[in-house]
Amino acid sequence: MFFNFFVFSISISGFYKLIGIGFAELGITTQGLALVDPSNWPTRLQLLVFFIFLDFVQWITHRALHQYPLLWKYHKVHHSEKEMGFAAHLRYHWMKNILYKPLKTFAVILLFGFEPAQAYIVHFIAITIGHLNHSNIKITWGPFKYVLNNPVMHLYHHAYALPAGKSGVNFGISLSLWDYLFKTNYVPEDSGSIQLGFPGDDDFPTDFVGQNSYGFIKQKKEP
Questions:
Q1: Is residue 78 part of a domain?
Q2: Number of C-beta neighbours around residue 202 at 10 A
Q3: pLDDT by residue (tens digit) across 86-108?
Q4: Which of 109, 104, 124 is nearest to 22 (CA)?
Q5: Number of folded domains in the chain?
Q6: Residue 219 domain-assigned?
């Protein structure tokens, strides 16, 4: 699990660096491509807007990871955890580093004219929040739960048993407000005593090679 995290950290750093070099060589600025130019905004406001819009893009892509079989087969690695803990945040298939992690950030940079340096800041804030939300701590933030994601809400995202007809719930990364706005929220109770995983996970690979090659080799038919 740490392997993919470090690979992602290295690749995302190189990705942003290449973007910066390429834009400089071509004389392109992010503001020149953007729909909105935030360069005159206060720095804190820029970071806040970047954080919010990136979180919404992540909510959309996270929902897609559960909705479409091609994406879900890679996202299953993350949901194969049977016990929540901060390290669970670092378990994911390496294909996610290619399919959407850099691309979603790049899209927000282009659309809103943000700089790669700002992406670093927002990325590490989101990583910290992600660690907390995957921790085995039963907190909900009280009335702020309708805006901020929390460990209990995200625990139900990893629940083995989902509401009928749902491919997933609680897709929020740092913010929960998208789930409440689009009716994908689901927290029936807050004890946190639930089974984690997904149907068929008894046959899911548990070793490093098996999980990282999942989706590329023929698997047993799953329920």
A1: yes
A2: 6
A3: 777 777 777 776 666 666 666 67
A4: 109
A5: 1
A6: no
